[in-house]
Amino acid sequence: MKTWISKWLIFVAAGHTVVGIILFGDTYREMITNGLLSSVNSLETALASWFLLFGFLLFIASLLIAVIEKDDALEIPKLIGVMLLILTTIGVVLMPASGFWLVYPAAIAILVKKQKVIKII
């Protein structure tokens, strides 16, 4: 499967967002009911906000990777794999009982993926 990396990361991002809504649904409702402006005013609302925002950020990165995967002339930069690997490892060290583990397959696949040979002539 040629484009599995972006699809996997989209799955992880969507799952992260769904879990966030399940875990922090009451907090999100309270934030919306009380007005979103300056609604991050406690540890609970900060955790809820970062959880949701991280899912969206991973989704955005996944969409960019999807564009790269679909264009035969492009390669996912190895630096993206390195940064995902570092971020994932930090997340796993700080929170071993988390979904950070799910990013390892994509990060490692980016790093071990063979670069295409581009023929000029």
SSE diagram, text form:
Elements: H1 4-34, H2 43-70, H3 78-94, H4 104-112
Helix pairs in contact: 1-2, 1-4, 3-4
Number of helices: 4
- Contiguous low-pLDDT stretches (5 residues minimum) are none
Succession of helices and strands? HHHH
- Total strand segments: 0
Quaternary structure classification? single chain
How many domains? 1
Beta-strand portion reads: under 5%
Helix content: over 70%
Mean pLDDT, nearest integer? 92
Helix- and strand-based class? mainly alpha
Largest sheet: none
Radius of gyration: 17 Å
Distance between the termini: 29 Å
Shape: elongated
Question: Mind explaining what this structure looks like?
Answer:
By secondary structure, the chain is mainly alpha-helical. It has one domain. Helix content is 70%, strand content 0%. It has four helices and no strands. Helix 1 (4-34) runs antiparallel to helix 2 and helix 3 (78-94) packs antiparallel against helix 4. The chain is elongated, with a radius of gyration of 17 Å. The model has no long low-confidence stretch (mean pLDDT 92).
Q: Which structural traits does this protein have?
A:
single chain, 121 residues, mainly alpha, 70% helix
